[in-house]
Structure of Isopentenyl phosphate kinase:
Amino acid sequence: MNVTLFKLGGSLITDKSKPYTARPQIIHRVLLEIKSALQKKPDINLVLGHGAGSFAHQSAKKFGTIDGFNNDKGKFGACFVHADAMKLHEIVLEECMKLKLPIFSLQPASFLLTKNKKVYFANFEILEAVLKKKMIPLIFGDVIIDTQIGATIYSTDKLFSMLANYLQDKNYAVNQIIHSGHYKGIYDQNGKVIKKITKQNYLQVLNTIKPSIHADVTGAMEGKIKEAIKVAERGIKTLITDGSKTGQIADVLLGKRAAGTTISKD
């Protein structure tokens, strides 16, 4: 089975400059494009994920949840951040239901455990079973219970990296990982799109990329690049492309060439 991992970036489906502000019209359009692509090419097997955008990143920064907790305030903070992540997830999920997409929601907090931020328990068998039933698993960046520091946060980018490894080990062909955001790709310091990143130049790129001006506790573009380089070692390409451009998401899923940044082994 061939599988594509597709992320709806937080910058695409929310306004990151305004806390708790989703973009319902864009969410509707991008999901409609996904539905259209699936109708034209029914053999696409998709895992869908989305970012936290202007929802959980705000509260995660406030409570420092990625580094755990050691008091009641931090404990409540972890719960609050998880609830914020779920708010956006419910918005996306509701739109999926309106469009009659066969989406099955999976909370990462329910299939992962970490110890000092490192995963020591992960059960992707449920997600795999969903795929086998020709449904689309929907995951998202989430608060994860940590047996040592209380809690931490795992981004969709990290989850996709782990999932890609798992699926390959189970003999699935992971076609590519696609990140669609409100940007044309990864920009250098001069605002120019970097077309290709490989193992040979990624360290140089990390020193020259344009930083995000919005809260992102999981590493923003730097985090995306690092996770993409990890899976590139296994021959999996990552495309970072502009989801705000009408038709782009459908085109990418249908195998048409799209502008953006490609991250690969060489």
